[in-house]
Amino acid sequence: MAALRSFRFSPGPGLSTAVVVGEGALGHLARELPRIAPGKWFVVSSQPVFFLHGERFLREAAAAELDPTPVLVPDGERAKTWQVLGHVLAELIARGLRRDGGIVALGGGTVGDVGGLAAALALRGVPVVQVPTTLLAASDSALGGKTAVDLPAGKNMVGTLHHPRLVVVDPALLRTLPDRDFRSGLTEVVKSAMLDAAFLRRMPALLSPLKERRHPAVAEAVFRSLRMKGRVVASDPEERKGLRFALNFGHTVGHALEQASGHRLSHGEAVAWGLLAALVLSERRGGLDPLLSERLFGWVVSLSEPPSLSRMRIAAWPEFLKADKKGDRRGLRAVVLTGPGKTATIRCEAEEAGEAFREARRRYNTARDG
């Protein structure tokens, strides 16, 4: 068994987040929960995830003389509603959550969002521990404290920052992921490598083992992704300095496509297309070396395998840019890559983003047909 990788950082004054990655990390989780909060623990999870992993989680918890109470939510984006959040909060209080207790979010990004927001709101805040079961959540959303539910106007419109006390990634929990979901997670891995020069240099050696889902490569890629994000979050924990905005690379177009597709595109698939468009925009507005852009474009296509959009009704996707929460009164903002691990924030009109996306589709079709 490979050794566990870990690090700790401060996401704000008086706050500390520990990250543990590797085979057997779930056992480490059970030992840490009583140190974080000595009272009653709850596990928020989706029904399919708890069916797959709940028994193992409860067995590890029992070995540490813990008996977490499950609170289950629907799978996917259906969990991110006011109604589901209200149900979770009511269940937590009715079943005995107290200020000395805590919540484990066991699942993908949507469970992390709902579980984290419930932890932020219940009793004015209790600790949350994130245990991601998708590669997308493991390499990105489990860390950083962002929690939210959706509104008809857009994704993640209502939420708050509530940093986890602990993030535990056990690659064994990723074994059951369908290939489509695994590829979606690789999108965030590639994005993280673009934002970290050392990770970018390491990526060529990881490309083949990541495609083959080899656990040592997956664990390393997740650890590098989270360590990069941890550094960024530590420098701008409340998103007040603008430094954390770089993590949105590829997400401006990606979120709009995801909504326009009616979520037929998964988050990772939509962001993969967003990254391709962002690379085109980076050449035009950020001065990114076209040769580097071409190489990174190829990584996204190879690892993420974004689906063809020819049969999807996404013509109106630019309309969703207007509701992008990353904009302000002066309009749309986007992140461009200027070099390995270097970014800039630009003002961008919807028409310009649309043109970058059309060029990305042209390059994608050429690469696929060639």
Q: What's this entry about, in short?
A:
By secondary structure, the chain is α/β, with parallel strands linked by helices. 49% of the residues lie in helices and 17% in strands.
Describe the 3D structure.
This protein has 370 residues and is of the alpha/beta class. It has two domains: 5-177, Rossmann fold (3-Layer(aba) Sandwich), CATH 3.40.50.1970; 181-369, Dehydroquinate synthase-like, alpha domain (Up-down Bundle), CATH 1.20.1090.10. It has helices at 25-36, 47-63, 82-94, 109-121, 135-141, 179-194, 197-211, 215-235, 251-260, 267-285, 290-304, 317-321, 350-369, and strands at 5-9, 17-21, 41-46, 69-73, 102-107, 128-132, 146-151, 154-161, 166-169, 333-339, 342-347. The strands form three sheets. It has a seven-stranded mixed sheet, sandwiched between helices. Strands 7-8 form a two-stranded antiparallel sheet. The N and C termini lie far apart (42 Å).
Task: Describe the sheet with the most strands.
Answer: 7 strands, mixed
Main sheet: which strands, in order across?
Answer: 1-2-9-6-5-3-4
Instruction: Spell the H/E element sequence.
Output: EEHEHEHEHEHEEEHHHHHHHEEH
Q: Class of the largest domain, according to the CATH hierarchy?
A: Mainly Alpha
**Averaged pLDDT, please?**
92
Q: Find the count of extended strands (DSSP E, 2+ residues).
A: 11
Number of helices: 13
Q: What is the global morphology?
A: globular
Briefly note the CATH topology name of the largest domain.
Answer: Dehydroquinate synthase-like, alpha domain
Secondary-structure arrangement, i.e. CATH architecture of the largest domain: Up-down Bundle
The tally of structural domains comes to: 2
| CATH H-level homologous superfamily name of the largest domain | Dehydroquinate synthase-like - alpha domain
Report the end-to-end length measured between terminal Cα atoms.
42 Å
